[in-house]
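Record type: monomer structure entry
Structure origin: computed from sequence
Chain ID: A
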Amino acid sequence: MSIRANRVSKVIIGGNWISVEPGSFRIVDMQFTDDDGNPLHGPLEVKAYQFRTENHDDYYGPLSAIELIKLTPEY
């Protein structure tokens, strides 16, 4: 089964449900950079999630931290 990222509405991270702003969920490479966007390390080879909450908070972390994903209904 594939997961359509634009349908992710909530995720459980650390045992807590977090609401995801519609259409904001992305899978990205995990990397830390300085203020100019320069990498602070070599490739981590870790995939990360990135999304914004309904309160406009930005979340970013290792994809493996997501325990459960709730999708909006497909009509």
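Annotation 1: The two ends are 18 Å apart (CA to CA).
Annotation 2: The mean pLDDT is 95.
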